[in-house]
């Protein structure tokens, strides 16, 4: 196969970097939106907007899927983990923590993927094991912070961060074979459409009256859905296709750093130095665990995607 041109690689890298910024900024945006709407209203809006756009793009590109019943059930089940469970935990984590801490979810995911992968018979090399160990040291540092009186991070809040990361890590592991079999866009689109149904049924009684939502809140939900869940996904998938999954995945560790910086600059969060140090150690471990290797196959492109 012909190698991508330098210009195409640069465009792909730019898209990946913009994706990292969008994912980090999305955490800060969601934190701000929670001041004017319930988590259920925000998630339902994001699901409906992003799901409709992604399904339309998938059908236009690939036609309506002709999957058997077992495949549809598998897509729905994995989608429920990555959408109903993850989004419920993720918004709760953002609400229960400073935005900078809630944004660590995406940094913790690769640290959990590797140990969980061992349970499924996947191999972990020495560098990845060291990366996981470093990141867990950072998590222990955050845990120590929660034990201090009047801490900005509580044990319960950190628990929601880990729950959200665990849900996305599980989704990541189980979506790999389905993505390889069905294609990235069809799987993501229809897993979102089917996977959010349990959440929608639960959330209906908790929705805000749309007429009472501020126009800026509605605009924020639209921006979050189209930016973090549609444009960012497409740019990330293109980056993985052009640059390779391994080279793309390592950039994911910067999204929590963007969330930390923007939370301080926009929301004026003032986190103690211990939190910044612990977060830095976690992200260092995640980057080390995700560092690219020449033998990692490009089919794993979507496995490292974030919310």
Automatic annotation (TrEMBL):
SUPFAM superfamilies for this protein: Multidrug resistance efflux transporter EmrE
Topology of this chain in the membrane: Multi-pass membrane protein
Keyword Amino-acid biosynthesis: no
The entry's keywords: Membrane, Transmembrane, Transmembrane helix
Protein location: Membrane
Main localisation: membrane
Transcription regulation as UniProt keyword: no
Domain EamA: 12-143, 157-290
UniProt superkingdom: Bacteria
Family membership: Belongs to the EamA transporter family.
PANTHER family: EAMA DOMAIN-CONTAINING PROTEIN, INNER MEMBRANE TRANSPORTER
Name assigned to this protein: DMT family transporter
